Amino acid sequence: MILVRRRAGGSSTGPARVARTRTHELTTGDRILQWVSGIAATIPLAGLLFITTILVIWAIPAIIYSGFTVFTSDKFFIGNFYNLNFSSVNGVVAPFGANYGALTFIIGTMATSLIALVLAVPISVGGVLMLSEWIPRQLEGPLSTFLELLAGIPSVVFGFWGLTVFGPFLGAHVYPALSHLGVVLPFFKGSWAYNGQGLLTASLVLTLMIIPIIASTTRQLVKRVPVLASEGALALGMTKYEVVRVVTIPYVRTGIIASALLGWGRALGETIAVLLIIGMANNPPVGIYGTTSTLASTIADELDSALSDGTGMALRAMAMLGLILLVMSLITNLTGRLVVRRISSDALPVGRGV
Amino acid sequence: MLSRWAVESKAPRFRHVRGIVFWILCGIALLLIITPALAIVISVLVKAAPALKWSLLTNTTQNVQNPGLQNAILGTLVLSLGVVVVAGPIGILGGIYLAEFAPKRLGGTLRFFSEVLAGVPSIVIGLVAYTALVVALHWGFSVLSAIIALSLLTLPYIVKTTEVSFAQVPRTLREAAIALGLSRITTIRKVLLPPALPGIISGMVIALAISTGETAPLLYTASFSNTNPSAGLFHNPIGYLTYVTYYYVQLPGAQDQALASAAAGVTILLVLLLIFGGRAITARQRKMVARLDV
Q1: What is the domain extent for residue A35?
Q2: Which of A75, A228, B74, B227 is the most exposed place for a label (fewest CB within 10 A)?
Q3: pLDDT tens, A81-110?
Q4: pLDDT band at A12, cuts 50/70/90?
Q5: Are A295 and A162 part of one and the same domain?
Q6: CB B124 to CB A351 under 8 A?
Q7: Chains A–B, number of C-beta pairs less than 8 Å apart
Q8: Do A88 and A110 share a domain, yes or no?
Q9: Rounded to whole angstroms, what are the CA distances from B274 to A118, A322, B74, B76, B203?
């Protein structure tokens, strides 16, 4: 009885495969549904190909214009639209003085997302372990609602909060204290904006945004740790901490790495929250509190002015930034999902929170 | 691994100290999750509370003396409706194919890329919708390009929840349908769909929550409009709630800040309502499926 139940509710392919009729028994209506739904099922893949193709096609002139300087120059200037002269490189014409170096944005994107990742992984794992090992069963449900709460808060609300509440709080109370640590840890030295706008604030808000992604996966996995193994470890006289270290952590390690990659992907592409908090300076950050910008936030911020470029090159430069961002997030996503595919099947696709 | 532990167990007191330090750090980590989550919701609602007036629902952002959110709220509703109409059928059909028809390898591939699409940054989807639809196809800032961008964004979620809902229907029901000699389409419509429906609906609700909370893909597809939504899918910018927060919070005036707070408060309430509503439906469905499983 129990075995039947488990199979019925089990993996997503199991029950369907067992109960399917053979293909030659399909009626006309069945075939129509099969084709229509089959086409619908390919639309996400088609969308992905469409996104990539459009970005590549639109970015090509900008890539020809910039060459390798995209990755080496931190000067991003969409050009002087009022100058009657034009800049021309490799036969591609752009507004006078246009230079599409993306180094600033790449640094900003990597710095914010990596700081967020380094903070979010231990917080998520520690919080989940606390939740599963020490918090009473009755409280576990209500407390885990906070994870769903954090996952559900829209990006723009994070940005709003970071700009009006969290940033000013950090600037007034936390950063002064933190900068005293600069005596021991030099990278905490530096000056910050009074409202806290800058790299570190943006990274901290990103940390909060990716915690739910890492924590929810970790929580699912921690629940599946074989009871026999951890009870055996307890019986050997290990403390709770040692059980976690010897049994739980090794069991969930792969899943944590995978979800960390997915969380990283989310942090790379986060736009509006970062735009509002990071200060949108067109230069690499000066110190850890410094203002800068990221690939995603620049696209959202600059597309407006890119529209008024008569040569249309600014828009192509935006497509180039978008392509760099897409490649970065595809790398983290593909790797993360290849790992996670082996572990879970019923969870929602991780990407936009929720 | 074992030998290391054997060595460490020689110092029992040290072991306990390490455990205590570890669990204190874990406790701090849990606090670092709970406190910000509460702080954000509470501080946003506290900021929004004084700005919440009846006139928010009756005035548009165009009103200079007493701006409201009517156009933004209506716009968000129109866009959500569009997502239901466009992404809904495609996502549900796609999920049905993956659960009921797809050969194993093809299904795995389609499922994998659908999930990869969920990880594409929303601003990239917005940028592509802008270049392809708004510029190349000359649609202009338009309702339809915004709906397509949002649909692309939410599609993976609908596909996934539909597929999982169908797969969770007990095998006994399928076997009964086969024994009755029902065709596949009848099986899906009459046998599998009723128990799967709550799950599908909860997937749609989550898709709505995502599209209500998104800003980046809408900036250059929907643009923004200070007036209420009007008929017309092309060359027709439309307002939405998240933009009001995004734009007005960057303005210095007290009235602008109040409007941004109000919009943030309304957005967060709407999204949380949708998410927890969706969860409630999922929980009910699990119970129902468990009852069906004989």
Answers
A1: 29-99
A2: A228
A3: 787 777 777 777 778 888 888 999 999 999
A4: very low
A5: yes
A6: no
A7: 360
A8: no
A9: 31, 31, 17, 14, 11
Q: Which tokens sit at A17?
A: 């495969």
Q: What is the pLDDT of residues B173-196, one digit of tens each?
A: 888 888 888 888 888 888 888 888
So what's the ipTM on this one? Answer: 0.90
Query: Looking at the predicted structure, is the pLDDT value of residue A257 above 70?
Result: yes
Token digits of residue B98? 């993956």
**The predicted structure's pLDDT at residue B277:** 85
Q: Are residues A249 and A111 in the same domain?
A: yes
Q: How far is B218 from chain A (nearest CA, A)?
A: 10
Same-domain status, A189 and A174 = yes
Classify residue A21: in a domain, yes or no.
no
CATH number for A157: 1.10.3720.10
Calculated CA dihedral for residues B109, B111, B114, B119, nearest 10 degrees: -100
- Of B92, B115, B246, nearest to A337 by CB-CB distance is B115
Does residue B244 belong to the interface with chain A, where contact is any CB pair within 8 Å? no
User: Is residue A14 domain-resident?
Assistant: no
* A236 and A328 fall within a common domain: yes
Task: Supply A102's token pair.
Answer: 């993306």
Res A126 pLDDT > 90: yes
pLDDT tens track for B60-86 = 888 888 888 989 999 999 999 999 999
User: Given A73, A99, A125, which residue is the final one in a domain?
Assistant: A99
* The domain boundary residue, chosen from A99, A133, A161: A99
Q: For residue A322, tell me if it sits in a domain.
A: yes
Task: Please state the domain count of chain A.
Answer: 2
Most confident of A23-32, A160-169, B2-11, B54-63: A160-169
**Nearest-CA neighbor of A218 among A122, A152, A354?**
A122
Contact criterion met (CB < 8 Å) for A157 and B293: no
* Residues on chain A touching B44 (C-beta within 8 angstroms): 157, 160-161
Is some CB atom of chain A closer than 8 A to the CB atom of B28? Answer: yes
Inform me whether the C-beta atom of residue B167 falls under 8 Å from chain A C-beta atoms: yes
Q: What pTM was estimated for this model as a whole?
A: 0.88
Residue type, A280: M
- Widest CA span in chain B: 78
Q: Give CA B239 to chain center in angstroms.
A: 19
Interface contact A29-B121, CB threshold 8 A? no
Instruction: State whether A325 and A218 are in the same domain.
Output: yes
| Nearest alpha carbon to residue B193 among B168, B213, B218, B229 | B168
Give the DSSP H/E element, type plus range, for residue B90. Answer: helix B70-96
B209: closest CA among A99, A154, A213, A28? A154
Q: How far apart are CA A255 and CA A303, in angstroms?
A: 37
Using CB atoms, pick whichever of A45, A127, A157 lies closest to residue B245: A157
**A9 within some domain:** no
Per-residue model confidence as pLDDT tens digits over B17-49: 888 899 999 999 999 999 999 999 999 999 999
Euclidean distance between CA atoms B220 and A303, whole angstroms:
8
Question: Do residues A52 and A88 share a domain?
Answer: yes
Nearest-by-CA chain A residue for B219: A300
